[in-house]
Design a protein that fits this description.
The protein is mainly α and 428 residues long. It is built from 17 helices and no strands.
């Protein structure tokens, strides 16, 4: 239902009625491709019609920003190789890869109902790893040099910069990765959880490259120091950067999904940024404690904070399934989704069984089932979103494409599984 007139049933209903009207006039195909301009009449205005937009053949957004991210990572890696050597850089990169894989796996689990497209996820991951890390390294180093020159105490200057400078700089730069998604891939955000996931990828990329640097520096100090740094950063705190930046993602996702103004992200972004800075700065302050006292602070403050954050994300992910099911109701009423297909989208057991069955038809069938589930979930979330904030033309157009893709995916896995079943019957 639309929040404005109470009658809109979503792009599925609109698209279905349009096709019915075209079929009723006997011109379904022509209506879809050829504008009916009619003949000129005296005193009548010229017929008006829109030239269809040309679809871009290349994903320029992904190409440009992935290129920037890779360039930033390459520049940092060259610096690490010069400072520590090829072998050490490779070893530390492998060590840093383990927490990255763990964090990404958790983000994928949280985003399991409606997985974000791979392209934008890679964009924000590389933005955090390359662009944000490189820029933050330059700014933080410059600020550290200036503060040390003023105070004459390098160690105290490091604490000041890590607590009062680095959080502001790093969270601003990481948060820009999510802003890119809001500006160029807005339709991929259809729940606040999506903003958190994108921010998590940016934070994970940043932490990965930063860990390589810290591991290299600790490796030059000796075995005990190296082991302590790896344990603290790789085991105890792999989620510090994703958790801090997630508050920016939450603010931006909330602005896109829950607020009617399309510019709401402009004033919501600073709110999320300040929250991210507070979490990040708190961690740096406690981590700067001398000796082993930081372990007590970690157990008393940081671990409970992380536990609350993780619990909130898992609960939000669980509730998202109910939101999707509620959003699919108009599609069930209009016949785009069968009632039996809803559990295939929002029930974990039914999802697994459906994918297992689809795999009997081969890779294309399994891929079609994943596309069907993701498209249906996105449609459900968009329906609930637009019932709150009103109709959005770009999102409606996107949902129409999802509907067409959903139908094609259904036909593909039904065809493939039936063929596989028939062949199995002939073999028996």
């Amino acid at each position: 239902m639309d929040g404005d007139d109470g009658r809109w049933g979503g792009p599925g209903e609109e698209y279905r009625l349009g096709r019915i009207a075209a079929a009723g006039s006997g011109a379904a195909e022509q209506a879809a491709e050829v504008p009916a301009t009619g003949g000129p009449r005296p005193g009548a205005g010229a017929p008006v019609w829109d030239v269809p937009r040309r679809r871009r053949s290349l994903p320029w957004f992904e190409i440009v920003f992935i290129g920037l991210g890779v360039s930033g990572v390459a520049a940092l890696v060259v610096g690490y190789v010069v400072a520590g050597g090829v072998a050490s850089t490779v070893l530390m990169s492998v060590l840093a890869l383990f927490p990255l894989v763990f964090v990404v796996a958790l983000l994928r689990h949280i985003d399991r109902w409606e997985p974000e497209p791979v392209g934008p996820c890679v964009v924000v991951l590389l933005w955090g790893a390359g662009v944000a890390t490189l820029a933050a390294s330059v700014v933080n180093t410059a600020m550290l040099t200036n503060v040390a020159m003023v105070t004459g105490d390098y160690r105290s200057s490091m604490v000041v910069v890590s607590v009062f400078v680095a959080p502001f700089v790093e969270e601003f730069l990481k948060g820009l990765g999510v802003v890119l998604i809001v500006l160029w891939r807005r339709t991929s955000l259809n729940s606040p959880l999506d903003g958190i996931v994108y921010a998590g990828y940016a934070g994970a990329g940043f932490a990965f490259v930063e860990n390589i640097q810290y591991f290299l520096e600790a490796g030059q100090s000796g075995g005990i120091s190296f082991g302590a740094v790896v344990f603290m950063r790789g085991v105890l705190s792999p989620f510090v950067h994703p958790m801090a930046t997630s508050f920016i993602g939450l603010a931006l996702g909330w602005a896109v999904v829950r607020m009617r103004s399309r510019r709401a992200w402009v004033w919501m972004w600073p709110l999320g940024w300040f929250a991210a800075v507070a979490v990040h700065g708190l961690w740096n302050l406690l981590a700067s404690s001398a000796g082993m006292s930081w372990i007590g602070w970690y157990l008393a403050v940081e671990f409970p904070l992380f536990a609350c954050w993780m619990t909130a994300l898992l609960l939000a992910a669980r509730r998202e399934a109910g939101t999707i099911a509620r959003g699919l109701e108009p599609y069930v009423r209009t016949g785009w989704i069968l009632p039996a297909e809803v559990p295939v989208v929002v029930d974990r057991g039914a999802r697994r069984n459906a994918r297992r069955w689809a795999r009997t038809g081969g890779r294309s069938s399994a891929r079609a089932m994943r596309t069907f589930q993701a498209s249906a979930a996105s449609l459900g979330l968009d329906q609930v979103m637009m019932s709150r904030v009103g109709r959005q033309e770009d999102r409606v157009a996107h949902d129409r494409e999802l509907l067409e893709g959903l139908g094609e995916a259904r036909r593909e896995f039904l065809r493939a599984t039936r063929t596989a079943a028939a062949q199995a019957g002939m073999g028996a």
